[in-house]
């Protein structure tokens, strides 16, 4: 097997722009907007195209987390290091998501997009929110949340697609492999082989990513139309501005302090960012982020622990959404909220936001639970934003992906598990698909991480 360093030293020719995945995804989205606008009847039937792509990725998420965590932790064979990484990651997540909530509250209070709407909730009812209202009054306590981290069975964690449960089982299993030492070698070899096969499937699946973005955008425009985006446009503009401010005022300085360019990082993961805009699902790019972050020089064990955990605990964009949406609904329904009420809301959001899943559809349910827990804003008022939720979710999932990528690099830097030469080289040249298959790439990556 050739060494990763030698493969990286080979000159990489500049590929035609039309073969770049970012361009293909963007072209698919543009075509989807056109089809959704001009042929709405056809466009609304394209929903299965985007959904099928998401399901394929979701099918692979659990096994990929298991293989990555086991290979990373067991390969390091250092329990103290795993503990340090986990503590540093959780500290970073809590600080940054708290800053996101504060920024979201400040901007929505300054711009006040909901003031003047004067919505009367007594004369308003929507069957679309009934399910959310019913679930909202069952608020998950801290003890219930912690207990839910432990799956009923190992299989149920993978069957249910719960990222945190899969991560919990994977960490324990990895510790078990590390504890038995050399006897774990056959199992490790098998895990590496399975990982290579899974990433080969991901590489094949990504070839249809432009088609998936096309179908998802065509369906969205066909169903909701541009009229939905124009109405309640103030909230959409306010939220997009809030996400931009978060990236500029919080993530950019963090990246600067840790010695890398945020703009170049966003360019490096540009295809993934465009894809989540189209699908509104962060899960669709999880496997690709693992590969790219390792190529950026982050040690495999750090990526394998930090990124899956970030998908549960580091929802920067979702926190911005919760803060903005909650206060907007209070403004629109003329619900009085003092700064004391908003601080209470902030405390509730610090807990409820940790349960938000990677797929944006769960955000509405968590928002409903938050409103019920705060006992101030009418839960039924979420009907006001259902129509524009898709436009909002594209922005907050985009921000989540940028935030999780930054978090992984930062924790790797803190842990001195970051190859700065690889980081500078990759960010300078930009991402280029390897000549080898994804499976070979992942196996060679595992070799380099252990060296």
From TrEMBL:
What GO CC annotations are associated with the protein?
Answer: plasma membrane
Q: Which GO terms describe its biological process?
A: L-aspartate transmembrane transport
Q: Which Pfam families match?
A: SDF
Q: Which residues cross the membrane?
A: 21-40, 52-77, 89-111, 163-181, 193-219, 239-257, 343-371, 391-414
Q: How the protein sits in the membrane?
A: Multi-pass membrane protein
Q: Which PANTHER family match?
A: AEROBIC C4-DICARBOXYLATE TRANSPORT PROTEIN, PROTON/GLUTAMATE-ASPARTATE SYMPORTER
PROSITE patterns in the cross-refs: NA_DICARBOXYL_SYMP_1
Q: Primary place of residence?
A: membrane
Its function, per the record, reads: Responsible for the transport of dicarboxylates such as succinate, fumarate, and malate from the periplasm across the membrane.
Q: Which GO terms describe its molecular function?
A: fumarate transmembrane transporter activity; malate:proton symporter activity; succinate transmembrane transporter activity
- NCBIfam families, sorted: PRK01663.1 (NF002461)
SUPFAM superfamilies according to UniProt = Proton glutamate symport protein (SSF118215)
Q: What InterPro entries would the database entry show? A: Na-dicarboxylate_symporter, Na-dicarboxylate_symporter_CS, Na:dicarbo_symporter_sf
This protein is called C4-dicarboxylate transporter DctA
Q: Where is the protein situated, by its record's location annotation?
A: Cell membrane
Top-level taxon:
Bacteria
**UniProt entry keywords in alphabetical sequence:** Cell membrane, Membrane, Symport, Transmembrane, Transmembrane helix, Transport
Gene name in the database record: dctA
Q: What is the lineage of its organism?
A: Bacteria, Pseudomonadati, Pseudomonadota, Betaproteobacteria, Burkholderiales
